[in-house]
Design goal:
The two termini are about 20 Å apart. With about 220 residues, the protein is α/β, with parallel strands linked by helices. Helix 1 packs antiparallel against helix 2 and helix 1 packs parallel to helix 3. The protein has a 5-stranded parallel sheet, sandwiched between helices. It is about 55% helix and about 15% strand. The protein folds into 2 domains: about 80 residues, Orthogonal Bundle (Methyltransferase, Methionine Synthase (B12-binding Domains), Chain A, domain 1); about 120 residues, Rossmann fold (3-Layer(aba) Sandwich). It is globular. The chain binds cobalamin (B12). Cobalamin binds next to helix 3, helix 4, helix 5, strand 3 and strand 4.
């Protein structure tokens, strides 16, 4: 989505703070980068996502343990919040291009990626109703019904929770609502193959792709 390179010093400061689980330092490094004019989307793509992915790999390899993983997650969320505010205020549009219900599926509390996706949708003119994390299929659909939504978007990060996406797809078809909403999925435990398998309308690997996907589905 952006080719602007994050200057080495800003990338290094933020990456170190995130990997070390240092929330205040991560916020300060994010604010310093944004104040110096670093592109917020470049910060996400070039620093936040790769750093947290590396933290996940180290957790998997037992190089670090749950407390470190949690601290990195919290630092990531704090940094993402600062980036989200910057993206939202820079791209705010008056007219909504559509209403998107976005949340993390039942049993799954990972919400950093979801929050980033939310801020990009907002920046591109969509109204986002964020239903939060650990959300049941019924809540996704009830919220869509109550708010005349166009899209239901679900995030799932773990192999055991991605079934939450299938539950939404199944409930939509049980209620004969599958043609009323575009249903899309994303997050580390999902892929295009799984989207096809459960009958979702689309999948995107990253936040930028999520915006392109919704643009094309609602065209
Ligand atoms: C941070 C983190 C945490 C934090 C979460 C904090 C938070 N508020 O989110 C904490 C510490 C709480 C946590 C807890 C756990 N975690 Co965790 N966590 C991570 C970690 C390191 C990073 C995730 C992240 O935020 N990535 C950065 C964001 C920006 O990327 P993203 O989420 O992928 O989102 C991008 C795209 O996927 C996409 N996207 C995301 N959502 C959507 C939605 C739509 C619709 C679309 C189109 C696109 C899209 O756009 C985003 C931006 O580009 C990952 C490792 C990893 N490699 O993913 C493990 C990881 C997901 N966690 C894991 C595990 C096992 C757990 C725990 C069970 C640990 C434990 N033993 O207790 C618990 C789960 C608790 C629960 N019930 O959910 C495993 C899952 C393994 C698996 N495949 O099932 C991982 C993969 C680590 C690992 N390698 O083992 N975790």
């Amino acid at each position: 989505m952006t080719d602007k390179k994050v200057p080495e010093n800003f990338a290094e400061d933020l990456s170190k703070a995130l990997a070390g689980g240092l929330k205040e330092e991560a916020v300060a490094a994010t604010e310093a980068a944004l104040a110096a004019g670093v592109d917020p989307l470049a910060l996400i793509q070039q620093v936040v996502v790769p750093t947290l992915t590396e933290v996940g790999r180290r957790f998997e390899d037992l190089d670090i343990f749950l407390p470190e993983l949690m601290a990195a997650g919290e630092a990531g969320n704090a940094s993402s919040k600062v980036i989200e505010d910057a993206v939202t205020s820079s791209g705010m549009q008056v007219q909504s291009k559509g209403v998107i219900i976005l949340g993390t599926v039942k049993g799954d509390i990972h919400d950093i990626g979801k929050n980033i996706v939310a801020s990009l949708f907002k920046a591109h003119g969509y109204k986002v109703i964020d239903v939060g994390k650990d959300v049941s299929a019924a809540t996704f659909i009830e919220t869509a019904e109550e708010n005349k939504a166009d899209v239901i978007a679900a995030s799932a990060l773990m192999s055991i929770t991605r079934a939450g996406c299938r539950e939404i797809a199944d409930l939509l078809s049980e209620l004969q609502l599958e043609d009323k909403y575009k249903f899309i999925i994303g997050g580390g435990s999902t892929d295009q193959e799984y989207a096809d398998e459960i009958g979702a309308d689309g999948y995107a690997f990253a936040a930028s792709g999520a915006v392109e996907l919704v643009n094309s589905l609602l065209q």
